[in-house]
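Q: Got a minute? One more chain.
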Amino acid sequence: MVALFLFAACEERDSSEAVNEKKSTAEVLGYVNPLMGTDSDFSLSNGNTYPAIATPWGMNFWTPMTSKMGDGWTYKYHDKKIRGIKQTHQPSPWINDYAAFSLMAVTGDLKYKEDERESYFSHKAETVRPDYYSVYLADYDVVAEVTPTERAAHFKFTFPENEKSFIMLDAFNKGSMVKILPKERKIIGYCRNNSGGVPENFHNYFVAEFDTDFDLNHTWDDGWKLNEGTLDAEGDHVGAIIGFKTKKGQAVHVKVASSFISPEQAQLNLDREIGSDTFEITKEKATAAWEKELGRIEVTSSNTDDLKTFYSCLYRVLLFPRKFYEFDSNDKVVHYSPYNGKVEEGYMFTDNGFWDTFRAVFPFFNMMYPDLNAEIMDGLANTYKESGWLPEWASPGHRDCMIGSNSAPIIADAYLNGVKGTETETLFKAVLKNATQSEGRPVNSVGRAGLDYYNELGYVPYDVGINENAARTLEYAYADFTIAQMATSMGKDSLAQVYYDKSLNYKNLFDPSTKLMRGKNKDGQFQTPFNPLKWGDAFTEGNSLHYTWSVFHDVQGLIDLMGGDDEFVGMLDSVFEMPPHFDDSYYGFTIHEIREMQIMNMGNYAHGNQPIQHMIYLYDYAKQPWKTQEKVREVLTKLYTPTPDGYCGDEDNGQTSAWYVFSAMGFYPVAPATNQYVIGSPLFNEVKLHLQNGNTFTIKAESNGKGRPYIQGASLNGTDFNTTWIGTETVQKGGELNFEMGSEPNKSWAISEDAAPYSLSRSK
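A: Always. Here it is, folded:
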């Protein structure tokens, strides 16, 4: 695809920022910084990301390791040494990795233990792109490069002149095997490391093909015991070493692939995805894969940093969930099931926490990638068939993490946006099971913890030993709404009414005396003492000030409970105006999410975590959209930068990035399954969405720029546009949405009753 990018000035800037010529998609790829968010650790997250060298939604990622084996913070920007480049499947440091192994090159005296083989490196001698990684291993005078495919990768190690040059494959601990095949110039084997969510027969089978004969071969056994001249090893933690003499500038290529199915499938993946391709051809294919996806959205701006931030965030949105399926010898789609341990037909995707991604990532897929999302939906149906339940946090199978019943909004939103896949009835049956069956859940995060209480009382009580009960109640109520919406669309009207009624359960936790959501005991009394600043306890990674707004489907109902628009806006304002005080007694220490809120100087607004990310858009519902516009622009320009500390909290499988991508375009999906985007403040002069159906939707913002976040007026396809929402179907039809921006709010734009986005209370 050839797409042209025009970057016209949207504000006064120095000449170094101005870009006035046409740009190709290949140059747009250069705006992506995979190091954005990598300056993180346990105590403070600036993204908690690692540089993922991968193709979009690839089965395998590759990343440099600066940390020890098993450390969830595998690459920390300020570390000084690299231990290897590993195949990784890690969706989050908190979930950690599985099926990981690494390659490393050394010269001179053999160093193979991970603490000894590590080499100093500099970011000045490091190239990091989605499609390519290169680093100079200073201790060994070696340049290591890698470029990915979906299930394989091509390595290139450029050596100095040396009598003793080595490449080693570390198969990691928790069960591994290696076998060196000198005549075939291969290393084969498997690794079994994981952090949970796998059957007993879980293996990641790998094959590494070299283009250079081996002069020597060693393996190591448990305890880093070196076995010179051996060809195979199996145990808890084993590895393989091959050696050769090298000339100055000699490049050794290694083609690596893996499979969760079998060694034969690993070889098939390698032959199919790389085969006889050179390193450059493999790289060109990876580049083309990213060009295709990143080029779907054209952005016009003179601010290079904004472009870098946008495309770096878009890159993150296009990584997860990962493809967990392969193509057999007959090109049939098959997968190893992380639920029943069998090889099954059909799609499977994994490494996703729906508590995060239901909010914006999956609505983005519905907008830009409906065919992909249809495959993901079929994969969800396969999870249900193979485990009896829908996933909520999969990595690679069910993991006990987070709360809610957020597979329902993901499925309903896809269906309502025309993404039907082939398994609609199966998926609807599955979401109903979540809402009706309390027994047999494989882990606490799957299904609905406290379901029987919720269905009997209309809420999950505070005093019955179920943690984060108020948050669960609010999320279940929203999930019930999405079930109702899907049921209505399927013609199941009586069932829909049942779930519309249940979706009003949020009202059971509203405390009129504080105008906040509050835990409630089984006897119907509110929990005491109550501190709205207390994180955790009745809520999840937040406090009452954050979760009170989790009434996505009925903001008008919440406005009515609070006493009207003015009271509602006052409560919204108070979150930003108060100091960043907090109560961390539930955790016993200040968790990183709290600290990230505290240091941003936006009061108690905690954008670094998901529960409150939609809150800024709620001013639109209360007829003060200019406050949404002002605060959206502030978050876009203050809390995101294209740097290693570029996020204000966990990036979380694309969600915090998807907030930026949507919001920079000018709208956001506050309530998936309502088929609406809520209007904010577009950051760019122009954005073009090249939709899958062949249409183009363009958003223009005239007179935009720094200090000009306010919408003065708008038109859609030449007709006055005076609402704070736009339909998802309208976007899919293509067309042009024009905004006129200014430095002062226009308090008469889009403030009528009919201008507000959908609320259940207003739909009756």
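A: The two ends are 46 Å apart (CA to CA).
Q: Perfect, thanks.
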